[in-house]
Amino acid sequence: MMTNLTDLGVKAIRDGVASGAFSAVEVAEAFNANVAAAGALNAFIVTTPDHALASARLADEARAAGEPAGLLAGVPIGMKDLFATKGVQTTAASHILEHFVPEYESTVSQKLWDAGAGMLGKLNLDQFAMGSSNETSYFGNVISPWRRNDGSNAALAPGGSSGGSSSAIAARLCPAATGTDTGGSIRQPAAFTGISGIKPTYGRCSRWGIVAFASSLDQAGPMARSVEDCAIMLQAMAGFDPKDSTSLDMPVPDWGANLSGDLTGKRVGIPREYRMEGTDAEVLKSWDQGIAWLKDAGATVVDISLPHTKYALPAYYIIAPAEASSNLARYDGVRYGLRDLPDGAGLQDMYAATRAAGFGDEVKRRILIGTYVLSAGFYDAYYTQAMKVRTLIARDFADAFTLCDVILAPTTPTAAFALGEKLDDPLAMYLNDVFSVPASLAGLPAMSVPAGLNSQGLPLGLQIIGREFDEQGVLNAGLAIEARAGFVARAGKWW
Ligand code: GLN
Questions:
Q1: Tell me, what DSSP letter sits at residue 3?
Q2: Does the CA dihedral 309-263-205-92 come out positive or negative?
Q3: What's the distance, Cα to Cα, between the start and end of the chain in Å?
Q4: What letters, b where the CB count within 10 A reaches 16 and e where it falls short, cover 85-108?
Q5: 176-215 per-position pLDDT tens digit
Q6: Kind and range of the H or E element at 452?
Q7: C-alpha span between 357 and 368 (Å, rounded)
Q8: pLDDT confidence of residue 2
Q9: CB of 161 closer than 6 A to ligand 1?
Q10: Closest Cα to residue 268, out of 106, 473, 436, 79?
Q11: What DSSP line would sit under 258-270, residue for residue?
Q12: pTM for the whole thing?
């Protein structure tokens, strides 16, 4: 029987191309066809079938010539539309950057092309990566391929902000994609759609050429359907970049080759403060299941305390908007994208008109909050205070990691919610990030892996948080869960 090429992951495609089981062009054509047929999911802002095909041809030619193959030779991927791609529209899902075509390539996307990957298209996201449901995109929300099993057919959120990435991977429109995570945007959408994703240590992947949201938190990472595929993608994406002053000058390990699900001698910390009110009973049950799986993999389980957890979310929603208000000041109608110049208007009017028309409501809300918390009268009360909390949270983790090697927690307090459900209540939306934000504030590597389905038939994710630079420990614990969860469920095709 012929394998369905679009069911294959990164490693299987790369190895199949290398062995000649199929050609890279066949793979690219199969994914291009799936992408073209999945308009209903709205996962892509632009598709780039020719880019995917051109890279595939190069991979096939290199193989025919007997040249050594790159880490991702012949693998077509999706690119979150927050990464600048030379000659291809880069919008951050905003009106203000609509029609912006960069003259340069982001470091991470360049590394992926250098490794032999091709691009199927630019993936939809929450506008400027601000959101948890993909509903803030100027180009319309992405829809999750998943549906509840109650026959209601309610359209569900794919998570955010990397919701185009999560939806596309779950629906087999691409084997892997890039994501970015400022407060959970790789992990939460991965959890909502039954896939894996890792936010590496802050600084592992260059931020150069990624549209900035909150620069002290923004971090790129891979999303895919297996832990090993995430490891391979991350290896291609990571590495020192002199163009990013916060880039880590450290060697990039071969995380894939060093993967091991044997956790003998490892200690897994269970943070007691994460047993919080409002967390779904089924999420708590899956957390207990995760604990049992890691014990089965040889780990010892220890109770730990992260005492400042309850302050993480409020601190994040001060720090991230503060940095956003500063970063987004560059969109003034002069340098990139949209320019709204009313008749007879002066310079100030042009700035105001461009920004009023170009930014969506959530982006405006963040700019207003950020400007307020940075203003002379309130800076100490809000911003300085939040930065102190950030230090305490990092210290909580440092203390905990004297007692354990990795931390296990849920990724999100609930499974995917319906589109529209939280749209009028920003606080309810922000609460979704309660388990993902602390690791972001501390700059630690953290990943989500699928743990199973809830009673409504929707995926639940488990989160593993590791020490600084210990992506290997995080991936290994992820692999131990993956091997035991045996997650093979997929969304029934309706699109
Ligand atoms: N949902 C969070 C926010 O809206 C996180 C977003 C992200 O990580 N980019 O800020």
A1: -
A2: negative
A3: 25
A4: beebbbbbbbbbbbebebeebbbb
A5: 999 999 999 999 999 999 999 999 999 999 999 999 999 9
A6: strand 446-453
A7: 16
A8: 58
A9: yes
A10: 473
A11: T-----TT-EEEE
A12: 0.98
CA 426 to chain centre: 20
Amino acid type, 312: A
What is the distance in A from the centroid of ligand 1 to the CA of 324? Answer: 11
Angle (nearest 5°) at CA 222 between 195 and 103: 135
CA 366–ligand 1 middle distance (angstroms): 11
Domain boundaries, the chain: 5-263
> Is 374 a residue whose pLDDT tops 90?
yes
Q: Does domain 5-263 have CATH number 3.90.1300.10?
A: yes
In 339-401, the DSSP E strands lie at none
Nearest CA to ligand 1 atom 10: 130
Q: Which residues make Cβ contacts (< 8 Å) with residue 303, sequence separation at least 6? A: 269, 270, 272
Give the distance (Å) from ligand 1 centre to CA of residue 271: 22
The two tokens of residue 413 are 């307090």
CB 196 within 8 A of CB 478: yes
Quickly count: other Cβ atoms within 10 Å of residue 398's Cβ: 13
DSSP secondary structure code for residue 88 in this structure: B
In contact, 124 and 134? CB cutoff 8 Å: yes
12-26, 47-61, 271-285: least confidently modelled range = 271-285
Minimal-distance CA residue to ligand 1 atom 5: 183
